[in-house]
Specification:
Elements: E1 12-15, H1 23-53, H2 60-88, E2 93-95, H3 96-129, H4 134-137, H5 140-166, E3 175-176, H6 183-187, H7 195-229, H8 234-262, H9 271-295, H10 298-313
Parallel strand pairs: 1-3
Antiparallel strand pairs: 1-2
């Protein structure tokens, strides 16, 4: 029986990304993703700045939103800069350590964002269904603990998933058929039978993705029942629905793409199927989050306009 401990021959990986694309297509993709990256960094950075410094946005909803934007900045910075470099250079080789680090950061930030989105849904539930006790239930101390829980769980769970990803040595092909080191694709390159690691990651994804989603569904079911049961005006209902719709849109984008990447059998995957969903949850969603929240929130739009106005004047 072969000793897998001494059979690892892979010291680096080749990120295929958009290698098969023509030079003109690569130039177009580089320009597009550079613009998207710049917009995402600018808008998320502005949300972080105003939610953490403007006293008029001193509420749990904006506290969570600031941390969501920070996670989005971490998410896109983990993947897009490397992709941009690989679109203009011929050498797409990354070291083993760099690939494993990128995988861990995607695990870490992705898990933290899943949990944070669930806490944001709970915040909306308390605000709408228990408005008189909102300040006591969602105190500053509670909000800090909830955000800390999301970060710590992402940190610990990321370490566990990273271990499951590299528990077998790598001695097969070192070509990664995506634009970053995505775990399911990298695990398929390990020696022996990678199915156990994939099953563990699948089970973990079921818990990490579906558990927060259950909390989100329950929260919004109570919110919907509360709104429809009140004798409020149509304008008041519309404002409440608008606030919730922003969060639900983000949840649908993020969870749908993440579930496809980590909860589907590998037999249903392929480069043409993986890349669009990977782009959706690592690039498009972090860029859309600030647009969705700012465009559907008058208070946020007003604060952003004032912040931009002060910047232009200075």
């Amino acid at each position: 029986m072969m000793d897998h401990r001494n059979s690892s021959t892979v010291t680096d990986f080749i990120i295929m990304g958009f290698e098969q694309s023509s030079p003109s297509t690569k130039a177009l993709l580089f320009t597009l993703f550079l613009i998207l990256y710049g917009l995402a960094m600018a808008m998320n950075g502005l949300i972080i700045l105003i939610t953490w410094t403007d006293p008029r946005l001193n509420s749990p909803m904006y506290f969570f939103l600031g941390h969501l934007s920070f996670l989005d900045v971490c998410f896109i910075t983990t993947t897009i800069p490397q992709m941009l470099i690989h679109l203009v250079v011929k050498n797409h080789t990354v070291s083993f350590a760099s690939c494993m680090t990128q995988m861990y950061l995607v695990f870490f930030v992705g898990m933290a964002e899943c949990i944070l989105l669930a806490f944001m849904a709970y915040d909306r539930y308390v605000a709408i269904c228990h408005p008189l006790n909102y300040v006591q239930i969602m105190s500053r101390q509670v909000c800090v603990r909830l955000v800390g829980t999301a970060w710590v769980f992402g940190l610990i769970n990321g370490i566990f998933l990273e271990y499951m990803s590299i528990r077998n040595p790598f001695c097969r092909d070192n070509h990664v058929e995506n634009f970053f080191c995505e775990a399911p694709i990298v695990i398929a390159l390990t020696c022996g039978d990678p199915q156990f690691s994939m099953k563990v990651i699948f089970a973990d994804a079921v818990v990490v993705l579906l558990s927060p989603m259950v909390l989100i569904v329950i929260s919004y079911a109570h919110i919907l029942a509360s709104i429809l049961g009140r004798a409020s005006s149509s304008s008041g209902r519309g404002k409440t629905f608008s606030t919730c719709a922003s969060h639900l849109t983000v949840v649908i984008f993020f969870y749908t793409s993440a579930m496809f990447s980590y909860m589907n059998p590998r037999s249903t995957h392929g480069p043409d199927k993986d890349k669009p969903f990977s782009l959706l949850y690592t690039v498009i969603t972090p860029m859309c989050n600030p647009i969705i929240y700012s465009f559907r929130n008058k208070e946020m739009k007003g604060t952003m306009v004032r912040a931009l106005g002060r910047t232009s004047l200075s």
